[in-house]
Design goal:
Layout lengths: L8 H24 L6 H7 L4 H4 L6 H25 L6 H18 L1 H8 L10 H23 L10 H21 L14 H11 L6
Length: about 210
């Protein structure tokens, strides 16, 4: 007999309401600005009295925190799914597939991207729980670079703190330019985003083993 707990109706309804609040919040952040989120506006959109919102989120920062975790979980899942579906064993190609999946998600979700990767909310710091999936993504990145090192495709320092910092700087630079200048242009057609493979090739060449 299964002992797995099934959420009761009240718990399910609460979870649904939390999801609705977050959906409305991300929509308002897209139209009004990421830092301009208003609890009153969220409550009005949901037909809820503002004090009722506090039953679910005690503050605006709590909503930002929940959205940070939700976005971090989504982008982590997208990268892992893309890598799992890869039809090549070439470690560099697999790495590029993961990086491209990451970039596509960021361009499809510019509000989440601003919350996750740019400090657009004065005073906001994600909680350890919300930040955990982002740390998993960083560990995945370091692991993928280490795989390329172990395969003899990159020098050992590619998987160092400096290598990871350079990689994230390059990818975030491409995405920042694309979101700032052509936010509605698809990944393949973006003036900056379509350069991602070129930029990453520069990274791979920078860390290529001597004589490789």
């Amino acid at each position: 007999m299964s002992t797995a707990a099934t959420p009761d109706r009240r718990t399910r309804r609460r979870q649904e309401t939390i999801g609705e609040i977050l959906d409305v919040a991300i929509e308002l952040m897209g139209s009004e600005g990421v830092a301009a989120l208003s609890l009153s506006a969220v409550a009005r959109r949901l037909g809820m009295q503002p004090p009722s919102l506090y039953q679910y989120f005690p503050s605006k920062m709590a909503i930002y925190d929940a959205l940070f975790q939700r976005g971090a979980e989504q982008v982590l899942a997208v990268q892992r799914e893309a890598i799992a579906a890869a039809t090549t064993d070439d470690v560099i190609e697999v790495h590029l597939i993961g990086a491209t999946a990451f970039a596509r998600w960021c361009l499809r979700n510019p509000v989440y991207s601003q919350l996750l990767f740019w400090r657009t909310i004065p005073g906001f710091e994600p909680s350890p729980e919300a930040f955990a999936p982002a740390q998993e993504a960083l560990a995945d990145l370091r692991g993928a670079l280490q795989d390329a090192v172990d395969a003899g495709r990159l020098r050992p320092d590619a998987a160092s703190d400096e290598g990871v910092a350079l990689f994230t700087s390059l990818t975030s630079g491409v995405l920042s330019q694309q979101i700032a200048n052509e936010p509605d242009v698809p990944f393949e057609e973006g003036r900056f985003s379509r350069l991602l493979p070129v930029v990453l090739e520069m990274f791979y060449q920078h860390y290529a083993p001597a004589g490789g």
